[in-house]
Amino acid sequence: MLKLVPRSNDVPPEEAAVPRAAAGLLLSRVAEGDQGAFAELYDLTAARVLGLIRRVLKDPAQSEEVAQEVFLEVWQTASRFDAAKGGGATWILTMAHRRAVDRVRSSQAGRDRDTKVGIRDYTPDYDSVAETVEVTVESERVAKAMERLTELQRQAVKLAYYGGYSHSEVAELLKVPIGTVKTRLRDGMIRLRDELGVAS
């Protein structure tokens, strides 16, 4: 496995320029299977390759992984390098940029695929049907329990809990004292709890 070791930044510019010019020559030797030339080429370009990939990917671990893929591709395809079309370092950096962009696209495609699968696997229709059934069953139970109340209790409960009226408004509507409304509501709710099997 390749170990990426960025070159020191204290190399004089004139010394750095000479090896860069030699990248094409090194690539031609790499194409012949020269491992020493590959090591020199790696030392020459690793920092620039990794820097370019990091600017695209941001993630250091993924950047190192893609850089390794780039150098593996350089080793395997060095014979395709054509000096007439550009410099060796440019050829390698173009390859690095392409692979970094491919990784970004692949990651985005994976996220999109996961989102689609999540949406497909989420079945709101099933959930809403189950919820509707549950509410319907519960409503039927409450309706049956309401039938067990006296007419006076049922009136008070319907007005207070279904109609949303206050105790004083219920008393006014039924033309009875507020104390009577409170008693009917209390007795009605106790009866409903008993019928529905709800602990008080």
SSE layout:
Elements: H1 13-21, H2 23-31, H3 35-57, H4 60-77, H5 88-121, H6 124-147, H7 151-162, H8 167-174, H9 178-196
Structure explained in plain terms:
This protein has 200 residues and is an all-alpha fold. It has 2 domains: 13-121, Rna Polymerase Sigma Factor, Chain: A, CATH 1.10.1740.10; 124-196, Orthogonal Bundle (Arc Repressor Mutant, subunit A), CATH 1.10.10. Helices cover 78% and strands 0% of the residues. Helix 3 (35-57) crosses helix 5 and helix 8 (167-174) packs across helix 9 (178-196).
The CATH superfamily of the largest domain turns out to be RNA polymerase sigma factor, region 2, helix turn helix motif
CATH top level of the largest domain? Answer: Mainly Alpha
Write down the secondary-structure element order.
Answer: HHHHHHHHH
Work out the helix count: 9
Largest sheet: none
Average pLDDT value?
A: 80
Number of strands: 0
Structural class call reads: mainly alpha
Sequence stretches where pLDDT stays below 50 over 5 or more residues: 5-18
